[in-house]
Amino acid sequence: MLKFVDSHAHIFYAEYSADIDEVMARAAAAGIAGVVCPGTNLETSRESIAATRRFASVRAAVGIHPHEASSADDDVLGEILAISADPGVVAIGEIGLDYHYDFSPRDVQRDVFRKQLGLARQRCLPVIIHTREAEADTLAIVEEVVGADPSWRGRPGADPVARGVFHCFPGDAELAHRVFDLGFYISFPGPLTFPVKPAKPNLMAEVARTAPLDRVLLETDSPYLTPHPHRGKRNEPSYVALIAQRLSELTGRPLEEISKATNANVANLFGLTVS
Description:
By secondary structure, the protein is of the alpha/beta class.
């Protein structure tokens, strides 16, 4: 059986409270050999770490989502730094900017984003970046950080340079290549599988056709963004295999190659190896 990694799934959410053991069993049966579970605030970051104790295949990321930036005072960020030393933690995330909802003021989002990038540099961890309708500011801040410390990378020894991932990649091919040039990966979620309509092209699919496989990850963003044909239902890590299949179709690459490449990328970025 081919193996895959779900590089972004929020399995601590209440949607899984009644059947998380069954969800993870289905993932294992579908060949999902690893799951990265990013926190969105201090509480869920701790829950992500707890999930690593319960499931051997899970690794945690800890961080403050832009929606929660208003709650991220220095004490909270100090706690994020402290718990990031846990051996189950492989990244700082999910962090970034979200100008679609503006649940936190934009200047606060930017400040907290910069500070968490600083935490990642301090801890030598990669970052998991969320950006929605804020791509220009997100790139500007990342470029600022990289420019100030070109030697910065996430996990020591990563080759090529692996500073993080732009999850649920929202942009076009031009933005993708700027991201690659900065030492970041992009990840593709369930919308990659959505049928193309003449009046609504699937920009994510267009990016997938040209993105180099050595800079691509797969994710579900569970419980959200459920892929076709399960759209409208709760998402779960087992469905990452459907995203891999669609990436294979779009690129004309065998599914075995998709598995090998994306697993190598997860190992390089997060140190999560698939056996």
